[in-house]
Protein 1
Amino acid sequence: MNLEDELRSALRRKEPSPEFTERVLARVAGRPLRRASRPWVRWVAAMAASILLAAGAMGYRQYQGERARSQVLLALRIAGGKLNKAQKKVQMLNAAHRNNS
Amino acid sequence: MPVQAPFRAGEGEFASLVRQHQAMVFSVAWHFLRDRAVAEELAQEVFLALYQHLGTLESPEHILFWLRKVTTHRALDVARGRQRRPMVRLEDAPEPVAVTPQGDPMLGAALRKLVAALPAKARMVVVLRYQEDLDPMEIAAILGIPIGTVKSQLQRALALLRGKLSRSRGEVGL
Amino acid sequence: MKTAGFPLAFVMFAGLAAGQQVKWNYEKLAARASDSVDVDLDGSLLRLAAKFLSSDDPDQAKVKKMVEGLKGIYVKTFEFKSPGEYSPADVDAFRAQLRSPEWQRIVGVHSKEEGEDVDVYIKPEAKGIGGLAIIAAEPKELTLVNIVGPIDLDSLSELGGHFNIPELEVEKKKK
């Protein structure tokens, strides 16, 4: 058994209830809806969200920039490595050719 | 950053966004909180917030990042709030309708229960890694923690899950 | 014109169009790979990356300078579980996309013994090299590199050897 594969299988995304989208749109439109039986969920979530959202855009830019930096370094290392390999082979072949002539 | 009006897309466009991302948002909340009703409520709140803030988001990739980040943090805060209240027993949590197309369903259920028993941060790292297939850098950015912490949380969580699983199945050397 | 370490001559062309990304058709190959690395950086992401490269770190400063003026860096590496999961015809198809007057192959090294091939192509321009493409085929790994914009081959080659890059967090995508 590969635990990671089993975790991927066990934690596959699942759809919410069929009326989910309709409920969201109704709330967006301001229509009265059945309220949650756990109002504290909404209170806690709203408090966290207001703090989080203020930093949201900056956080994403930071993430994008750091990720792009990592990718540039990785890409140039790969490209440089292959180029280096080709260069060494050419030098070896040239040296062998000189020795044989 | 220039102030932008909130996104005022037609219902069709926003509805498309909801349908596109609802499984992701709901599932992060569901796999983390193991309470379907709470997960749906939380997911609704996330999309309401998205509606308000869509005008500030730059691209589809940014929307996805934003949704993951907001869902994750809200779920963590709900879990913190729940610690002061009686928790829903894992045995009582209803299983959603979708069935995993491959793998042992009994094992899947067992794994989900074990994941639910992990400490909150480690549990969220596992959910983001294996539900969303995110790498440590992405998980670190979403959770706002160092990459090294993500990696060590992941390592420890896998070791814990492996040990618990092998003991519960009577297997050795998983 | 010679670049040190690359004694094969190449012809300079004048007045070429601005570099464009090579659009390799790798979807079928990607489907067969067990792991892959995918780097897709256009001009705007490169400019963003440059802001995050440290000028105080000598290696990152070299990269920062190298990246200036580049319009894109695209790298795909596919890994396979066993040799033979991709064919010479697959590699030929990638080479075929570089058979146009604007591309010049400057290195073609083929090692039967090791089963490794490396082809290096440049896009010559009046002021130097306007683009680079590399196809590197090994028994269990195939790499496609495309760099769009002015690039110095010797500086790039140096990066592949001793470049002290901190542990990279961009992970391979497992299938």
Protein 2
Amino acid sequence: MDILAYIANNIPLILERTVEHLSLVVVAVGAAIATGVPIGIAITQNRRIADAVLYVAGMIMTIPSIALFGVMIPILAVVGQGIGYLPAVIALFLYSQLPIIRNTYTAIDNVDPALREAARGMGMTAVQRLRTVEIPMAVPVIAAGVRTAVVINIGITAIAAYIGAGGLGDFIARGISQTDPRQLVTGALGVSILAVLADYALLWVQNRLTPSGLKG
Amino acid sequence: MIRLENLSKTFDSPEGTVRAVDNVTMEVPEGEVAVLLGPSGCGKTTTMKMVNRLVQPTSGKIYIDDKDTDSYDAIQLRRQLGYVIQQIGLFPNMTVEQNISVVPRLLGWSRQAQQTRARELMRMVALDERLLSRFPKELSGGQQQRVGVARALAADPPVLLMDEPFGAIDPINREVIQDEFLKMQAKLKKTIMFVSHDIDEAVKMGDKIAIFRDGRLEQYDDPDMLLSQPANPFIADFVGGDRELKRMRLTRVSAAMDPDAPTVQADDSVANARAIMDQAGRAHAVVVDAANRPMGLLTDRQLDGEPGRLCRDAANPLPEPVTADRDLRTAVSSMFTHDVDWMPVVDADGCFAGVVTQDGIRGVLAESRRRPARQGAA
């Protein structure tokens, strides 16, 4: 009951933290789409480069987030941004690369070779082929990658509270340090609900983006 | 017209250099269908893909209407050649109409022109216009195949390249689509290069057949010559032990029939019939009714007896007639079915046209076996 009372009394603060939380994720994933999709498309041209890029992106995923934040403190301190918003966005951006690049690469690479040959044989240029055939066919899979990235990042952003980036992780961090279960549970609930809602919202977007000829 | 001159393609593989296509020279005449035929890996598909430069030739030249294809930009060249692939390759993210309009769109046609053309093409391939707004996955295999052909014909290219175009559908639909395609081709008169591995399809579709083995063109001839005079044991084996039966598909009954077989009217007298048969020097006459439809057979044995009898009453029943535009295979099959060695031939309206006999068919088949064989590629 304590917890419900706490939540009821702190709605404005919770909303503010939620917006902070989301804005970190949206900015980072937005930037990751802008870089990851072109990279994913580009590496379909060369198997060896593709393997190398996916290997590096996979390795970044295995770095614990708290360690990544730690590593960035001295580096970004040079520009006076050792903690706070910037290192958080950079870390989230890096974690988003693997799901987005990998899904883009796999989706484009898996387009039926017969379709590519038909497109080539009819006189489409490489760019026309990408725009009218390969990307439309790949969109559902790319969108699934974005969804994965967003859900992962909503979790990781909770940890970014430790470097002062704000967000719902603040409740958790304070809950732990003040041994206050009310704040702790509020933060945990908020992060979980946000992740589930984002997942459903993006599933809807993914379905909207899927060409009707590919559905069902 | 498509002309290949000393066309070769070599690939580097771990086992050394492979000559996929070896010095091929051939010409597909304007408005004809040339089928490239051979076992898999014989170079027929590679040869075809060099025409639209999906594969770059190692050496040799390709001319379309006497123009060297090297003088075109590859992209521009492909937009001027219709292309149908085995897997059909309709784009699943596009509607039927969008699929059909791909090349017109690339060529910058107006929306209006694209729409008009799409409707025209649907009629041409015998599909309902309402399918235009459907997606490929909502169509049956046969319908998809038709859309594939319509798409290749969209910009009305003079030359079509077809890579086992009817390979992906069941045998029954395949026959139907082949027949429709032949009807369409009789009107459109495209110059077509058609890859197949099926001798029956080749004999049916081809004005000429090019047989490939190990990258080399072994024989390039019209189907009847290929079947009657295969140039070497490999070809004889490839076209099959029943090649004479296949040849019978190529010849119409009208070519083997005897149009001068005597007829008598049903209400003529037997005496009159005898005079007609004596004059023609035949032992048989076909009895026809007033509309010239065959209805019975008179042999000289039935002429004995009362000379005033009507032919109608003296006649024996006739074997089932065969239509003049059917192929010989149908006629022979029907002869075996009814255990006869001749049959009356009728035209499309059922009027008597002549008779066809097993001897006559033997004669037609033997005749082209005696024709001088042409050497190599024409």
